[in-house]
Write a structure and sequence with these properties.
heterodimer, A: mainly alpha, MetI-like fold, 3 domains, two-stranded antiparallel sheet, two-stranded antiparallel ribbon, 4 strands, disordered C terminus, B: alpha+beta, Rossmann fold, OB fold (Dihydrolipoamide Acetyltransferase, E2P), 2 domains, five-stranded antiparallel sheet, 9 helices, 20 strands, 25% helix
Chain lengths: 316, 369
């Protein structure tokens, strides 16, 4: 009979650490595979992208990116032969497929729309949300609990459930396919999240800080700006990222309410048509580029984000 | 520096009355303590003086100017919070400089004043440090520095030593009082700790459940408590309370305690009007004396060196007696107790109010002798 092995506290915590590491790595792998696949497809070129079985090793090509940014037309061999040799590397890629560049594609404009609408609505939602959260946190507002519940209730159904009324309202108000319209819409969706998250963060800041500042000569608003905001920075950063991700990735309303002038990248990217069907390389290139701004923004705020997401933990 | 007066100050939160019609004057240069258990309204009173809270009715006067509804920044007062409220995103220097910067003081003057204040509080070596890593006592000093740097009309302190451990609290008590003596500023100090209050205050206001019970210098408060609550709250161990059997005849000179023992009465300056009374006597005003009228068994002895507190069970109730450490008292032994009746306080049981004593100097001398 062997004596049962008794784990010392350090041993058990080492084992636990390994277990935790495996779980985290496994989870990361599962969630990263689609993203890796998108990046790979973006560099495969139009033909390889749809080959079967899918190619894991391939010669990288920028064809997808070229196709993403250009519109092209197919030409006969005779016409191509009489053209002067291609001046740029992208023209060369296009020629290999018996095509010539006809002009830039709308992708850049769509991308810019996403930036304007995504960042614009996030900014407004955070500014309004912070002030509302501060008011809810600090002042005696009649029916405050009911108001907060009401604000949250806007998130209790999928936003698309009200797509038709919004579509009709926007048409009547002339907000369809406008930047302002999309910014208002995303702000409205995000503001409840912002108020609730930020109220939690601001509740945790002792009000003595502002009171001290107010006795020392600040107005309430100055105290809010100079004393409360710096301490809420962590929460604001975390909330900003949540709001930005939602506004940036929103697909359904963008598809419904924008067609041209204010169309964002999400409804545009999946519809990039190439020769005889979807150009998967170009679609993946678009998706890859589309990931970048949020990625960079998140990395930029990562320090705050990590501290912010662990809210509820001791914050001292 | 300033005199602070509050007149019929009243604050209700819904149905709950936090402060009920308080009137008092805090004289220029006084160290004034608001004392009471938590929830008694002392902090609310302080916040109304600071302008962080507006009263439901009544007035706050600062140097005879009615500032009841002025905001904090319009009053020229400084507030020290229990948890210090040092701005965590600023270092010590900037915390100290903050009140001056908000007033638009020129940079060079800010610098001079910060250094001068830091020197006064002996915290010059901390100026460049972030406030996060400081020990509680140092944070306390920075918080005090931030209050005194502006040379305001008055300092308001809300349990500023509450977050410190006992050892440090005694030290800060002395520092605080020393600081007050040096700069001679009107200070209103809130605490629930009677030792702090007694050792620091020029005047003490005792509050309970929103009512202002008594405003008096420490010794007056100790010797002549105005109510049962004050008598019980001030002093450790607190005053002994013995129920008087039957009514009181003021000219009789004796009170009959529960259990039948008769003890001498203090000389009253008013006729007892009620019909139920409590005989209050401080532990140090009872002597263990075999010829004493009150007899009882020693229940416990707390020996503290020079002094000891002896708990005695008598027919009139359990009593605490403070005597010299050399007096012999053995648990279980029967002892006699002699009460220094001139120092006793008679309370009306119904109104809890103390009956006024005749405290002419001759009597006081007789009592002390």
């Amino acid at each position: 009979m062997s004596t049962p092995k008794v784990l010392t506290p350090t041993e058990s915590s080492t084992q636990l650490k390994w277990f935790a590491a495996i779980v985290v790595i496994g989870y990361a792998a599962i969630s990263l595979i689609p993203i890796v696949w998108i990046f790979m497809t973006a560099f495969k070129g139009t033909a390889t992208a749809i080959s079967y079985p899918p190619a894991v090793f391939f010669d990288p090509s920028l064809e997808g990116f070229v196709n993403l940014f250009t519109t092209r037309s197919r030409q006969s061999a005779e016409y191509l032969a009489q053209l002067p040799p291609p001046e740029t590397w992208w023209e060369e890629i296009v020629r290999q497929n018996d095509q010539v560049i006809a002009g830039p594609s709308p992708f850049f404009g769509r991308f810019l729309n996403s930036v304007i609408i995504g960042f614009g609505s996030t900014f407004i939602a955070i500014v309004l949300g912070t002030m509302a959260a501060y008011a809810f946190s600090r002042f005696k507002i009649p029916l405050a609990d009911d108001l907060l519940f009401f604000i949250l209730s806007t998130r209790m159904m999928p936003p698309v459930a009200v797509a038709i009324p919004i579509f009709l309202m926007y048409r009547a108000l002339g907000l369809s396919d406008t930047h302002a319209g999309m910014i208002i819409l995303y702000t409205a969706v995000n503001i409840s999240l912002a108020v609730w998250l930020l109220k939690g963060f601001i509740d945790e800041i002792p009000r003595e800080y502002e009171e001290a500042a107010m006795v020392d000569g600040y107005t309430r608003f100055q105290a809010f700006r100079k004393v409360v905001l710096p301490q809420a920075a962590t929460g604001i950063a975390a909330t900003t990222i949540f709001c930005l991700i939602l506004a940036w990735n929103e697909y359904a309303f963008a598809l419904l309410l924008t067609t041209n002038r204010a169309e964002t990248a999400p409804p545009f990217i999946p519809n990039i048509i190439g020769d005889g069907g979807l150009d998967w390389a170009a679609v993946s290139a678009g998706a890859s580029l589309f990931l970048l701004p949020v990625l960079i923004f998140t990395l930029f705020l990562r320090k705050h984000l990590l501290r912010g997401i662990t809210f509820g933990a001791v914050r001292k | 520096m300033a005199e602070i007066r509050i007149e019929k100050l009243h604050k209700a939160f819904g149905d709950f009355v936090a402060v009920r019609d308080s009137t008092m004057t805090i004289e220029d240069g006084h160290f004034f303590v608001l004392l009471g258990p938590s929830g008694c309204g002392k902090t609310t009173t302080l916040r109304m003086i600071a302008g962080l809270e507006f009263p439901t009715s009544g007035n706050v006067l600062l140097d005879n100017e009615d500032v009841t509804y002025h905001r904090g920044r319009e009053r020229d007062i400084a507030f020290v919070f229990q948890m210090f409220a040092l701005y965590p995103h600023m270092n010590c220097y900037r915390n100290l400089a903050f009140p001056l910067i908000t007033q638009g003081t020129p940079r060079r003057e800010v610098r001079e004043r910060v250094i001068e204040t830091a020197r006064l509080l002996r915290i010059e070596h901390l100026l460049k440090r972030p406030v996060g890593g400081l020990a509680a006592g140092d944070r306390q000093r920075i918080a005090l520095g931030r209050a005194i740097i502006r040379r305001p009309k008055a300092f308001l302190m809300d349990e500023p030593l509450g977050a410190l451990d006992t050892e440090f609290r005694d030290l800060m008590c002395q520092e605080l009082r020393g600081l007050h003596n040096r700069i001679d500023a009107t200070t209103v100090y809130v605490t629930h700790d009677q030792v702090e209050a007694m050792s620091m205050g020029d005047m003490i206001a005792v509050m309970h459940q929103g009512d202002l019970l008594q405003v008096a210098p420490p010794q007056e408060l100790y010797d002549n408590p105005a109510t049962l609550f004050v008598a019980n709250f001030i002093g450790s161990p607190p005053m002994n309370f013995l129920d008087v059997e039957g009514g009181l005849e003021s000219d009789l000179g004796k009170a009959r305690l529960v259990g039948g023992t008769e003890v001498a009465m203090p000389t009253l300056a008013e006729r007892p009007a009620g019909n139920a009374f409590v005989y209050g006597i401080r532990p140090e005003h009872i002597r263990i004396d075999d010829n004493g009228p009150l007899r009882g068994r020693v229940f416990g002895v707390e020996y503290m060196g020079a002094r000891q507190v002896v708990t005695v069970d008598t027919d009139a109730g359990r009593l605490k007696v403070r005597t010299g450490g050399s007096v012999s008292a053995v648990v279980g032994e029967t002892v006699g107790l002699d009460i220094m009746s001139a120092r006793a306080v008679i309370f009306d049981q119904k109104t809890e109010r103390a009956l006024a004593r005749d405290t002419s100097p001759a009597l006081a001398e007789a009592a002390n002798g």
